[in-house]
Each structure stands twice: as structure tokens, then as C-alpha cells.
Amino acid sequence: MASLFVWNDSYSTGIREIDAQHKKLVDILNALYDAMSKGQGNQALGKLLDELIKYTVVHFATEERLFKLHGYPDTLAHKREHDELASKVLQLQKDFAAGKVSLSMQVASFLKNWLTNHILGADKKYAPFLSSKGVK
Ligand SMILES: [Fe+2]
Ligand SMILES: [Fe+2]
After folding, report:
1. Please, which residues have CB less than 5 A from ligand 2, an ion?
2. Which of 28, 36, 43, 60 could make an SS bond with 82 (beta carbons 3.0 to 4.6 A apart)?
3. What ligand is nearest to the CA atom of residue 26?
């Protein structure tokens, strides 16, 4: 299977539930990339894109629940980043469904950057805070 994104420990937040969810997002993204490189049709690609978006929503909700539960001080800025990311992928989904964009390598690398920048940036920032609250 062709992989776009190879997980390594530098992506780890040290929080089990979060790392498992991030890995699943990476898996879905890799499956999408693999399907693209095999030249699979729009229906198959659309399904994987839907899966990516659905799981992203689940994942963002998990993080935001933890922030609320532990009173993370940077919640607002983090949520804003989630909302921006979500609206970008929803726009992509819409444009794809309308036939305005095709899922190209450019789109795949956009999704990869989207995920890595958020994990390595905003997500890594909350890790020490949640760890200090005993979240494992
Ligand atoms: Fe996040
Ligand atoms: Fe995250």
C-alpha cells in the first residue's frame, strides 16, 4: 500500500486516546492516498473523504471534551483552529461532490500538511497541560 504519511513518535502527544485517534486519521488519509494512486474512481475516493471528515469531527469533539473537562486555558484558540480546518475540508468535500475539484496529489498533500501542522503545533501544545492533569 502506498503511504502518504508514515507515523513516527514525534507525532505522539503521550495521551493514549488522542494518539490512537490521530493514528486512525493517518490511516484513513493513507487509504485515500492509496486509492488515488491506484486510480480508483470518484465514488471510492468520495467515500474515504467522507470517512476522513466524519472521523475528524469525532476527534475534534474528543479533544474539546478533554479541554472542557480540565479547563484548558487555550481552548478558544484551539477550537478556532479546529473550526477553520473543518470548514476547509467541508468545502473540499462540497467542491469534490460538485465536480469542481478532483482529488489530486496536491489535495492529498494539503490534507497531509493540514493534519501534521495541527498535530505538531496546537495539539502538541495541550499535551503537557493534560498530562499534568493526570490524563494518560
Ligand atoms: Fe486539535
Ligand atoms: Fe488532534
Report:
1. 123
2. 60
3. 2
